[in-house]
Amino acid sequence: MAIDPPVFDNSKVTVIFVLGGPGAGKGTQCGRLVEDFNFCHLSAGDLLRAEQNREGSEYGDLIRTCIREGTIVPMEVTIKLLENAMGAALKEKTSGDGWTKGRGRFLIDGFPRKMDQALKFDETVCLSSVVIYFSTTEEGMLGRLLERAKTSGREDDNVESIKKRFRTYKSDTMPVIEHYTGQGKVAEASGNYVDCLQRTKRIAGG
Ligand code: AMP
């Protein structure tokens, strides 16, 4: 039986995954990379929160429970949201500002958080190029999250949920980082933007 090719051709679309524990600073550093490299930044967590709040979503309750419990939302939901967002960005951006026709550069933050989604995305959506990995200590992450909790309004920025998120990160996401390390695809950036910038330059040019 013939296997369908990925939805997006990786010779035309560059996908960079951004991983790191909860509160490692992924979102902050992605914002800076977007400014410097004109990436399209997609955050799996933001897409899930938007879907959770979308009126009529059949996944709202499921997503809410997973987020509160710090567990992984099933890959079918997360991958479909990313695929749709990539398609929409390609349509919009190729007609305008900076991406040459048919070529897209995506920074996908907080994904893949579990091995099944890593394998499925690479096989069916687009083969990823590289993983930027922000490594930092649990103590540092906890401090950042508790500081953020004062203003974020996020249901999972509380000590109970944070502990569960750390557990999920160790059990489900660390194996993903090990998997890509084995493929020589991981650029570790130790939460330091200069380091991250150097590594991204090598991958993305510019
Ligand atoms: P974040 O906004 O990255 O801190 O993610 C918040 C929560 O959203 C996580 O604790 C998970 O419950 C869920 N989530 C984020 N990214 C993913 C993903 N790639 N796969 C499944 N669930 C995710």
The first-level CATH class is given as Alpha Beta
Strand percent estimate: 5-15%
Specify the helix fraction band: 40-55%
Quaternary state reads single chain
- Put simply, the count of helices is 8
Q: Which regions are unreliable across 5 or more consecutive residues at pLDDT < 50?
A: none
CATH homologous superfamily title: P-loop containing nucleotide triphosphate hydrolases
Q: How is the CATH topology named? A: Rossmann fold
On the 0-100 scale, what is the average pLDDT? 89
- CATH architecture term: 3-Layer(aba) Sandwich
User: Bound small molecules, which ones?
Assistant: adenosine monophosphate
Derived structural class: alpha/beta
| Number of separate structural domains | 1
Order of helix and strand elements from N to C terminus: EHEHHHEHEHHEH
Q: How large is the radius of gyration? A: 17 Å
Q: End-to-end span in angstroms? A: 42 Å
Keywords: Kinase, Nucleotide-binding, Transferase
GO molecular function, one term: ATP binding
InterPro entries: Adenylat/UMP-CMP_kin, Adenylat_kinase_CS, P-loop_NTPase
Family: Belongs to the adenylate kinase family.
